[in-house]
Amino acid sequence: MDLSDIKIVTKNKKAKRRGRGTGSGLGKTSGRGHKGAGQRKGKKLPYAGFRGGNLPFLRQIPKRGFTARNRKVYQIVNLADIQERAKNSSELIPEEMEKFGLIENKYKPVKVLAKQNGKFNLKIIIKADKISKKAKEIVESKGGVFECLKR
Fold it and tell me: Which fold has domain 75-148?
């Protein structure tokens, strides 16, 4: 069996014929109901959250805080994960982090944090967008280097 052998089975379903007498079940108002915006031709309801003129749910719930549009969302990498997955590496760049499964996307910014399970003992060059103060101390104490990527 091959993917090219698979056939998609679709049923030939005819469109419902509306407005063809009361016996058809979709006569007279053609399934649109009586009065209101849905019954008029050309009138489209404003959006998905529209509740028939009631205050929409999204406007009812309280809003808190502020989210900047141009915020940077960093992918987090912990020293424990680096020690576990990148033991044989001498240099760790975003491409390798993606290969080791430490990050999802090599093009998005990366931040290294100091979370560890025991002692960090790798002499490694880490290239990332940001690093916490504690993580930098730990890496440099073991003879490693942190290089900041300018992107």
Answer: Ribosomal Protein L15; Chain: K; domain 2 (3.100.10)
Structural domain spans, the chain: 75-148
Residue 33 Rama label (left phi>0; alpha psi -120 to 50; beta): left
Q: Which pair of structure tokens corresponds to residue 105?
A: 């996307």
Q: CA 96, CA 89: separation in Å to the nearest integer?
A: 9
Amino acid in the structure at residue 144: G
CA distances from 151 to 82, 108, 125, 128 (A): 22, 9, 18, 10
Q: How do residues 31-58 score in pLDDT, each as one tens digit?
A: 888 988 778 888 777 778 888 789 999 9
pTM of the predicted model over 0.85 = no
Report the alpha-carbon distance of residue 131 to residue 99 in Å, rounded: 20
